[in-house]
Amino acid sequence: MHSALLVLSVFLASIVEGVEALTIVLAIGTTRGWRSTWYGTATAIAVLAIFIAVLGPTLTLIPINVLRVIVGGLLLTFGLQWLRKAILRASGFKPLHDEAAIFEKATAASRKVKHTEQKAVIDDWYAFTIAFKGVLLEGLEVAFIVVTFGANQGSIPLAVVAALAAVLVVVALGLKVHKPLSSVPENSLKFAVGIMLTSFGIFWGSEGVGVHWPGSDAALFGVIFLIAVTALTQVTWLKRRYNRLNAKERLA
Amino acid sequence: MNILKRFGSFWYHFIVGDDWKVAVGVVIGLAATGYLAHNSHLRVWWLLPALVVTMLSFSLWTAIRKK
């Protein structure tokens, strides 16, 4: 059952980051040309693959309880960061991630940079660098989740397959519509991933430091339920507060 | 800014993010849970979830207080 949750968490996280990376790649590719953009994208994917290939097996050498404390602590910190942002966005205190606006901004910025023709493999270093940086930074979060989840569950290949499946879905959709995937409910997905990362972090971190969960592995569902209810309650409470503040501002 | 500083700053923002108090709370929470699990007869499975719920609420409250 944990494997199914692992696949779901990695898949959803990869969809979110894939959509963000696709926006950057599309913006650069359509304004600067595709050759160098593809080289930048492919190089970033290769770096991420090396990161997973090196770090993944290294983590599995660490004793399981120590690994659970490290991974639990990191996932918890990382997951709370995602969840906090998603709650602030859902309640209105932080603007929603707007792929169309990001696309427009990146397109305008890349048009301003002069294109100098070169007869080299990489004919446009600006396109290469922006695509490389965008895919690497967005992909790093996915690689981090793949490595930590996979190592702890003893199934890095399964986590990699889930991430690759998500990337293929995003690329296929991107090629079909040829514009940013603005209709993907990114914040809702981030919200769900934040709940999963935080819950796995609590579960594994506690086990690592010597806690025995009542009901053993089934306790994870209780933790997920608790974090989901807490997060949804926070959204409701913050939304009310945001609306009250807005109403006061309108009256003033 | 030298490369080492930028490298450190990148990983700090990548892992810790906007609220460093959450990261400190996670470390303290894990340490306290581990200590009590090994040195008391209490069943402490509830401690970390309770701390996380409190930390998240506190972190959100400090974020919106400035608005």
Question: Which secondary structure elements does this structure contain, and how are they paired or packed?
Answer:
The complex is a heterodimer of chains A (about 250) and B (about 70).
Chain A: H1 2-32, H2 34-60, H3 64-91, H4 99-112, H5 125-153, H6 156-177, H7 186-208, H8 219-251
Helix pairs in contact in A: 1-2, 1-4, 1-5, 1-6, 1-7, 2-5, 3-5, 3-7, 3-8, 5-6, 7-8
Chain B: H1 3-15, H2 20-39, H3 47-65
Helix pairs in contact in B: 2-3
What does this structure look like?
- The complex is a heterodimer of chains A (252) and B (67).
- Chain A is an all-alpha fold and 252 residues long.
- Chain A has one domain (2-251).
- Chain A has helices spanning 2-32, 34-60, 64-91, 99-112, 125-153, 156-177, 186-208, 219-251.
- The mean pLDDT of chain A is 87.
- By secondary structure, chain B is mainly α.
- Chain B has one domain (17-65).
- Chain B is built from three helices and no strands.
- The relative contact order of chain B is 0.12.
- The interface between A and B is large, with 41 and 32 residues.
List keywords for this structure.
heterodimer, A: mainly alpha, B: 67 residues, 3 helices
Strand content of chain B: under 5%
Strand content of chain A: under 5%
Number of discrete helical segments of chain A: 8
The coarse overall form of chain A would be flat
The unreliable regions of chain B are none
Number of domains of chain B: 1
Q: Judging from the principal axes of the Cα atoms, what is the shape of chain B?
A: flat
The string of secondary-structure elements of chain A, in order, is HHHHHHHH
**Terminal CA distance of chain B:** 32 Å
Instruction: Round the Cα radius of gyration of chain B to an integer and report it.
Output: 16 Å
Please give the share of residues in helix of chain A.
over 70%
- Tell me the structural class of chain B: mainly alpha
Topology of chain B as a string of helices (H) and strands (E): HHH
Largest interface: A-B, 41 and 32 residues
How many separate helices of chain B? 3
- The tally of strands of chain B reads 0
Unreliable sequence segments of chain A: none
Quaternary assembly: heterodimer
